[in-house]
Every structure is written in structure tokens, then in C-alpha cells.
Hints:
Blueprint: H1 3-24, H2 30-46, H3 50-58
Helix pairs in contact: 1-2, 1-3
Amino acid sequence: METDKAIRVLAGSMVLTSVALAQWVSAWWLLLAVFVGLNLIQSAFTGFCPAETILEKTGLAGRKAGPLPPAED
């Protein structure tokens, strides 16, 4: 999976999890959604995303968006 798509899936999942936990456990879980949102904003300005680094190190994502490499024969 492309890294940018993996980041979107991770961020969306974290926000939905945060909202569900806020509904059923405690409203304090909304701080997780705030953290995810702030992290997305800072990564847009700085280009640094901790989740990207983690996903690439675990091998869950690693291919940047762009043209595909040529096929090997």
C-alpha cells in the first residue's frame, strides 16, 4: 500500500476509534482525535510524519505515490 494512503487509513481509523471510545467510555478520548488532527496539520507544514516512519519501518507501507517502477523481465 502506498504510504500516503496508509497514513489516511490510520488517521481515519484513529479518529473513528476516538469518537467511539468517547461515546461509550469517556469524553476524554476525544483528545486522541485532537492529537491526530494536530499531527496531520503539522505534517502538512513540516513534511515530518511520525506515523509514516513507523509504517515504513514495519513494512506495512513503503511505496511513495507516483509512477510505478518498470516491470522486471
